[in-house]
Design goal:
- The complex is a heterodimer of chains A (316) and B (279).
- Chain A has 316 residues and is an all-alpha fold.
- Helix content of chain A is 79%, strand content 0%.
- Chain A has helices at residues 2-29, 34-39, 45-54, 61-73, 87-122, 127-141, 144-158, 174-208, 211-218, 223-260, 266-276, 279-307, 309-315.
- Chain A starts with a helix and ends with a helix.
- The chains are: A mainly alpha (316), B mainly alpha (279).
């Protein structure tokens, strides 16, 4: 366990360093004329050159990378080219918004996926099982903006149960915030549930066929007790790795859902920065999302190891 | 594309599989639309008729009209072409490159295998959506960039599963026999192992095709597709979502088109996977 942690914790900074080179190169070499983009087509060549010099864009690439990395590590992420405010504060606010949405999604996802997977697994090869498997497959294949648009038409336009925008009015309490975030969260839940439910189902089927469950049944333990006491834990452990994979999808899905529901999260910020070629913001959001992504993978792996004694022992 | 569909339907013996048969039919319809839409549309999908804005679905306009008075049904049919151009090309690129890498490293094994697999593991760590946004936004939107970005994201996935299948085949007696009679490595890979992992390749190609349609539609929705005026489905959903209250059909038509296509491909991929796993 300890050696696993040490290995992963040393690998993560190295990978992040690689990511930083990639992000820097992508944002430095590819975008072409930044000064021209910011100032527009009518600006004179002299003023474009002056802005490039002011932004330090006329220096050699290695110098600019080291200078950028140094500033980035000390928390100085520069000012946004388009929003004219420090990127650090901007990213922090947006990150908080995205975290609210992600946690809410996860809280909805977990019970739904577990229940569906367990039900389908315990009653495998019945109509219920085929229904859950079929729907999981269909919903898991459908992009979240497609589900989101259908949800919007039904629940925001037609029934008017939920608002079309995810952004609550300033001063709204936590319940109103969640009410606004329900449709975006449900679009992500619909996308991710199927994958997790399929994993829970597969491990449930394996557990239900196992000798100790049969023994418990033969002892006359009630079916509900068998599921709660014997199946639940054994079937959910392998599903934690599936959840980890879905958390990664969630980070990507944030970009799409935040755009669809006009929600000012970090995904929407990344997209806007990429379209506007707002390099400091783009670098910071890409780095932060990359780091978060790796943290999520690490946490999922750790949870899997802590929950499963077999892996825990094998890794020691 | 059509060869893949034909191969898939031949494999399935569709009579016993109503869902798979329906999926194959939906896929065929969209492929038909992508190929022949200019002969099928009631009017030019780009034709703007200001007097006919936001008409709800009727006999004249089956799926209504949009903010410029363009026919939504015509745009939906025309929108099948960009996605069914980008997705199969990206799939072909990803599967070909991934298979080449997986087959080579799986056959050679040793240090080549170690190094290549480490690099691919590191590449998977970076979230694909973020990488795609980064590269498409900065390289400019064109079919070529979209195909390259989506195809590149598939390479590590395909390489891993092809390598795994190759490692299994590597232990079979026929490979040993080929090695003993001194067959060159290239011929061993292409003539002996490749035909025996065709099931893995077919399953990978179908699954990745579904992923590619998902990715192409999503990038188009994010404004990273072929640009304004294009009847692309993702872009249509994004452009028209402002009019959701007023004209929901302008959003629902392209959204349901995407849904039907991705679900059809996912179902076919699932049936193929079960067939080959069951062997």
């Amino acid at each position: 366990m300890r050696s696993f942690l040490v290995r992963r914790l040393t690998a993560i900074p190295l990978t992040l360093l690689g990511v930083s080179v990639l992000v820097f190169l992508a944002t430095t070499v590819l975008p072409g004329d930044v000064g021209r983009t910011i100032l527009g087509r009518e600006a004179s060549d002299a003023s474009v050159a002056a802005l490039d010099h002011q932004l330090g864009l006329d220096q050699p690439v290695t110098v600019r990378y080291l200078r950028w990395l140094g500033r980035f590590l000390t928390g100085d992420w520069g000012d946004s080219y388009t929003l004219h405010q420090p990127v650090t504060g901007l990213v922090a606010t947006r990150l908080e918004n995205s975290a609210t949405l992600a946690v809410y999604t996860f809280v909805l996802l977990l019970p739904v996926a577990l229940t569906l997977g367990l039900a389908a697994g315990v009653r495998h090869d019945t109509l219920l099982d085929r229904l859950v498997s079929g729907l999981s497959l269909a919903f898991g294949a459908t992009p979240e903006f497609v589900t989101g648009v259908v949800l919007l038409v039904v629940f925001a336009v037609d029934l008017k149960w939920f608002p079309a925008s995810a952004l609550p009015a300033p001063g709204d309490g936590p319940l109103l915030v969640l009410w606004h975030l329900t449709l975006p969260a449900v679009s992500l839940v619909v996308l991710c549930t199927g994958y997790v439910a399929r994993h829970v189902r597969a491990s449930t089927v394996a557990v239900v066929e196992g000798p100790y469950v049969r023994a418990a049944r033969l002892r006359g333990t009630s079916p509900a007790k068998v599921v709660l006491r014997h199946v639940l834990r054994n079937a959910t452990v392998p599903a934690t790795s599936a959840l980890g994979v879905q958390l990664q999808f969630l980070l990507g899905g944030l970009v799409v859902v935040e755009l669809l529901f006009n929600y000012p999260g970090v995904g929407a910020l990344l997209l806007q920065a990429a379209i506007d070629k707002d390099l400091p913001t783009l670098q910071a959001t890409a780095m932060i999302l990359g780091a978060l992504y790796m943290a999520v993978v690490l946490v999922a792996d750790l949870a899997y190891r802590l929950l499963d004694p077999r892996v825990r022992v094998a890794a020691a | 594309m059509t060869a893949l569909t034909a191969a898939a339907s031949a494999r399935l013996r569709l009579r016993g599989q109503p869902a798979a048969a329906l999926a194959a039919l939906v896929l065929l319809l969209w492929v038909g639309a992508a190929l022949f839409w200019p002969h099928l549309v009631p009017q030019d999908p780009a034709l703007q008729v200001p007097a006919e804005r936001f008409r709800s679905p009727s006999a004249a306009h089956w799926l209504g009209t949009d903010q410029f008075g363009r026919d939504v049904f015509a745009r939906m049919l025309a929108g099948s072409r960009p996605v069914l151009t980008v997705a199969p090309l990206a799939t072909a690129l990803g599967v070909a490159a991934g298979a080449a890498i997986g087959l080579t490293t799986g056959t050679l094994r040793g240090w080549v295998d170690d190094i290549v697999m480490r690099v691919l593991d590191a590449a998977v760590v970076f979230p694909a959506v973020i990488a795609a946004v980064l590269f498409v936004a900065l390289l400019g939107h064109s079919t070529v960039v979209l195909v390259l970005v989506i195809g590149a994201a598939f390479v590590p996935i395909v390489a891993r599963s092809v390598r795994a299948a190759t490692l299994v085949e590597r232990e079979r007696p026929y490979v040993e026999a080929a090695l003993l009679r001194g067959e060159p490595r290239a011929s061993l890979m292409l003539r002996e192992i490749l035909p025996n992992i065709r099931g893995t390749l077919l399953v990978e190609a179908t699954s990745r095709l579904g992923d590619a349609i998902f990715a192409a539609a999503t990038l188009s929705f994010l404004g990273l597709g072929q640009g304004p005026g294009s009847p692309e489905w993702g872009a249509s959903v994004s452009e028209n979502r402002v009019w959701l209250q007023l004209a929901p059909w302008t959003v629902l038509a392209p959204a349901l088109a995407i849904g039907s296509l991705v679900i059809a491909v996912a179902l076919l991929a699932d049936v193929l996977r079960q067939r080959w796993d069951g062997r």
